[in-house]
Amino acid sequence: MKPKSQRLVLVVAAIIAMAAAVLLAMWGLRDKASYFFTPAEVASGKAPEGRAMRLGGMVERGSISRQPDGVTIRFTMTDGEARTPVTYRGIVPDLFREGSGAVAEGRLERGSFVADTILAKHDERYMPPELGNLAAEHKAGKTLEK
Amino acid sequence: MIAETGLAALWLAAGLAALQLVLTVAQVRSGVEFGRTIRTVAVAQGALTLIAFLMLLLVFARTDLSVALVFENSHSAKPFIYKVAGAWGNHEGSMLMWVTVLSVAGAVLAALSRRVEERTLIAALGAQAALALGFYAFLLIASNPFGRLDPAPLEGRGLNPLLQDPGLAFHPPTLYFGYVGLSVAFSLAVGALLTNHVDARLARAMRPWVLAAWILLTLGITAGSYWAYYELGWGGYWFWDPVENASLMPWLAATALLHSINVLAARGALRAWTMMLAVIAFSMSMVGTFLVRSGVLTSVHAFAVDPQRGTFLLALLAIYVGAAFTLFAVRGASLREGAPFQLVSRESGLVVNNLLLSVILGIVFLGTLYPLFVEAVSGEKLSVGAPYFNSVAGPLALVLATLVGVGPLLSWRRERRPVLRKLVVPALLGAGALVTTIVLAPGMGILPRSGLVIATYLAAASIVPLAVRNPLRAPLATWGMAVSHFGIAVALAGMAANAAFTSERLAVAKPGDVLTLGPWLVQLEDITPAAGKNWTAIEAQLRASRGSGPVILRPQTRYFTDPPTETNEAAIETYWNGQLYTVVGKPDPSGGWQLRLWWKPFVTLIWLGGALIAAGGALALLGRALLAWRSRRPRERDWRERYR
Q1: Do residue A9 and residue A52 come from a single domain?
Q2: What is the pLDDT of residues B276-294, one digit of tens each?
Q3: Which of B268, B450, B275, B469 is nearest to B354 (CA)?
Q4: Which residues of A touch B359 (CB under 8 A)?
Q5: Please, which of B278, B308, B448, B456 could form a disulfide with B433 given CB 3.0 to 4.6 Å?
Q6: Same domain, A62 and A72
Q7: Are the beta carbons of B337 and A6 separated by less than 8 Å?
Q8: How many domains does chain A have?
């Protein structure tokens, strides 16, 4: 092969590879990305049933209840507008408490959220960006109550 | 005074970087020789940042609470090692470390590099100064690590307990050396494109930097993976978290670069291609730094959300990557064509390696940034996790692992012999593994099963390049390659075994209860309080046995007061064939305790494989250094004789 045409072949190969990457990524992202929803969006029917998604909000005070098996918990996630019941089997993360922010990964089954993973606020200063506004609103709400 | 010395050193270094940039531009444009001055300035700049960094370590070691950063991230009651390591366990400190590595790398390049053509080196030092200047500006304007508090507080806020771990002392520095070591490859590529001197000599000068950076990235990622595995208490070794991807992307690019640079060094082919990869590799480091340091993504690692810093970093990223790509677009096409090669040749094999790595890189890149993109466009929030990365990038990685066995057997330029015949034994072993897994574990998923089969084949195939000749006479670099490729097989086997054979048990147990877990019987003997220097804990005592003598594990839940936090300290027992991983959770109203137990067969192979991959790199680096040293000696003798 002449050097010139060799370069052409390489350029074409690189372009094909990049196109392949983009196509593969788009195909994967179309049905494997999990969207983030708030309880209000769940209540208004925006969240699809049975698909991997994330639910974010504050853990409602007094809502955590332990099931008889000892490792399953139920609690309510709220964003001030609506409430979604959540079931989770496992050890909750260290910073998971009532009244603080959490994100649950899992799926919606008949209006109730079944979580595979629970992410809680990571330290005193960290808040998942999705919860940033929510937390600010929540704080504002609390100040008003006072 | 210490903090002020550090700050002054930083300002001086920034001034020197500006001077270095001006001098290099002057030399490249007017041709006046400033070479010696430029080298001296680069070395002085490196020394100054090193001083600034040492000053930061000093204020942390002394817990000088009048420094804002120390107040926010340290505490007088913290163990000494975490006081020092805490210096880089926060945004400002880690950025200072980043800049320190960057300018010290520049200094080393200036002081030691004799292999590069002089004009290219000067241009490269200019590029390095331009990089450093931007990040000095970022530090001094948006992230000053030496800000004072007046009056000084009495006690600090403490360091996030998750970071109070030996992993912190080791993991970030290693990764940063890797990230920033790639800056030298970037600068050399920019320099060579500016002076139009892209050749084998440049590749040979660039190679040790790429190799060293790649070794450290490999070690950093492996160590980080193990750290997350035992510290987070989730039993997973890779979460496809954006911050993990931020370190994986430069690694993928550096791996591709590492292979293509050999083509350029040995054969003078793939010129534009290699320059492109050098630019991409460091761009990925900057993308990673942006992702981690701007807090732009939801992530278990993002400690702060700070949009101003994010914008600053994004601007730097856009300027540097934009400029480098523009330069590439202008100069790339006018580069001389590389030496020709046939379709079946070592060169082609390496091109295929590069293409596959690039596609995987593209997939990881798009998956990591897609949530940002969607949120910016439509405001919708989403996350992309393991299901996407495993199913899209996983099969490609397996294809790549299969080809890893073939590539090293091809000869340069043109392969005439039937290469596949040498792979009969590895292929038979792979087939044997397939039959064995079908018989013993019929229910395995397709990815883990292919992983085990390909790992078995590759473990054998990686040794073939040594076996076809006298292994003792093979160059060290060939040994390095074989060890690295063998490491891929080992890591792959670990991942597949972990995915296929892990047993998990989640239960509430009272003292005296016995739980079964795979081949194990685990008894909760007792729950007791425990305490450390700055924490108290609840400790479970577990007696685990399988046939032979029992072993005691003590997982804890620790409570820290500064800042108030709980962490799960997993207790892990390692055997030759796997790890027993135990976590104690919350108390149950009935008087029991939550226990989470895993038996993970052969999971340790993942990190052993990572270490082998890095060790192979180290062997290759050593081999190249020895070769260079040997080939330099006769020339020195020449030189001495001439001047006698």
Answers
A1: no
A2: 999 999 999 999 888 887 7
A3: B275
A4: 17-18, 20-21, 24
A5: B456
A6: yes
A7: yes
A8: 2
